[in-house]
Amino acid sequence: MLSLFEIASLLLAISAAFGWINHVYLRLPHTIGLLVMAIGSSVLLLVATYFFPTLGIIEVVQRAIGQIDFYSTVMEGMLAFLLFAGALHVDYDFLKDQKWPIAIMATFGVVISTLVIGTGFWYLAQIFGVGLPYVWALVFGALISPTDPVAVLSLLKSINIPHSLEAKIAGESLFNDGVGVVIFTIVVSIAVSGGSIDFVHVGELFFVEAGGGALLGLLTGWIAYRAMAAIDEYTLEILITLGVVAATYALALRLHISGPIAVVITGLLVGNRGARVGMSETTRQHLFAFWELIDEILNSVLFLLIGLEVLIISFDPSFGWLVIWTIPLVLGSRLIAVSLPIFALSIWLKFTKGAIPVLTWGGLRGGISVALALSLPNNEFKPMILMATYGVVLFSIVVQGLSVRWVIRKTVDPTLL
After folding, report:
1. Three-state DSSP class for 3?
2. How is residue 315 annotated by DSSP?
3. Are 44 and 109 contained in the same domain?
4. Do 34 and 182 have their domain in common?
5. Which one of 141, 282, 353, 365 has the largest count of C-beta atoms within 10 Å of its C-beta?
């Protein structure tokens, strides 16, 4: 049994080694390279174990990975700091200019996507002879609908696109995961209890969790930047941000409101108003560099974990075709969820050329979807939902992540990349 320190040391050492190999030889985007190498290593271990079962290497690795609670690690640990780091670097003025597209895609877009994917997944299950209740199909729709801010913001660092389109992609990914988690929590509670869907009660829970998270983020963000404005000591100000992020997320979990939305609002306040009125230039440089480093380290470990989790997840080959058809289903639902708001808003707003294909193909899924799938209670439907989630996430990060440059070049402007 490895200790927590030994597991953390192993993950950091592997992340560093894989990162070096990728940088020197593969030259893929950093997080995608780590994921590809982790999956490749997992497959090699499985193959080696098949031919040399007495080696026992895979059992050691599986025990180490099995000790990690992926859901708690991501949703109750990494996510708070990753979201804050992402929001800290987002220009609020750009978000404000795109507030209506972002707000509608992050709310109604997620709801539309959940319903379309849930319904489509239920039909696919019937076609392939799986007796999946409709409410559990909606659970899958809820956990896979939000684009992952960690994957999306990591992608945006490596590409060059118009600011208005970048703001839509970044803003939607920062907020729709909080909305998606709220919807997922509600739908799972209905599925587990076997109760009927009370849309009025669901609406009340949604606005309480999302609205409560936003209000908490405004409060803690204001406290943070006011405290930082009263001093000029960058080490202490960095410590203040760390404390505020952890406390905000922990308090949100305790109050049963949206922690992701709370830390995003906090990050936007500190990174914009706080940076303008509450920080010296020295503090600003050190604080932003610190959080960029935190973002890179946690991103590396998270994408490595996604790849290594393959070793401890049971994949049933009988669900293979269902998973394959789920990938175009998710992409099609993303197209619908993006197109409807844009068509509706284009009556009075102007959108960048190629906005629909870029938002569709650039809407990556990642660790949040995997974490939510792993958190599901053990039942006969979980293996199928987990396998479908992994299939979509791997396709999203590897295939979409590596080809989004081509999509931008073809649909927006060939001179951008």
Report:
1. coil
2. -
3. no
4. no
5. 141
Place of tokens 């905000």: 248
The residues, any chain, with a CB within 8 Å of residue 295's CB and separated by 6 or more, are 81, 82, 85, 86, 153
Q: pLDDT of 187-211, one tens digit each?
A: 998 898 876 666 666 677 778 888 9
Out of 31, 51, 66, a domain closes at 66
The answer to the question of residue 157 being in a domain is: yes
What is the full DSSP assignment across 38-83? Answer: HHHHHHHHHHHHHH-TTS-HHHHHHHHHHTS-HHHHIIIIIHHHHH
With respect to residue 307, please indicate whether it lies within any of the assigned structural domains.
yes
Q: What is the pLDDT of residues 287-315, one digit of tens each?
A: 999 999 999 999 999 999 998 888 888 78
Between 414 and 261, the higher pLDDT residue = 261
Angstrom CA distances, 3 to 65, 70, 120, 298, 312, stand at 12, 16, 43, 20, 19
Burial call 199-231: b when 16+ CB within 10 Å, e when fewer: eeebeebbeebbebbbebbebbbbbbbebbeee
The DSSP code for 278 is S
Q: Residue 120 contacts by C-beta under 8 Å, 6 or more apart in sequence?
A: 329, 332, 333
pLDDT tens column, 263-291: 999 999 999 988 888 899 999 999 999 99
Report pLDDT for 331.
96
Pick the more confident residue, 414 or 244: 244
Distance CA 255, CA 327 (A): 36
Neighbouring residues of 401: CB distance < 8 A, sequence distance ≥ 6: 29, 32, 151, 155, 364
Q: Are residues 303 and 171 part of one domain? A: yes
pLDDT-based confidence at residue 95 (cuts at 50, 70, 90):
confident
Neighbours of 50 (CB within 10 A): 9
| Segment 220-267, tens digit of pLDDT | 999 999 999 999 999 999 999 999 999 999 999 999 899 999 999 999
User: Same domain, yes or no, for 180 and 329?
Assistant: yes
pTM over 0.85: yes
A 10 A CB-CB count for 197 gives 11
Helix intervals (H) in 194-233 = 199-229
Burial class of residue 47, CB neighbours in 10 A (0-12, 13-18, 19+): exposed
CATH of the domain at 219: 1.20.1530.20
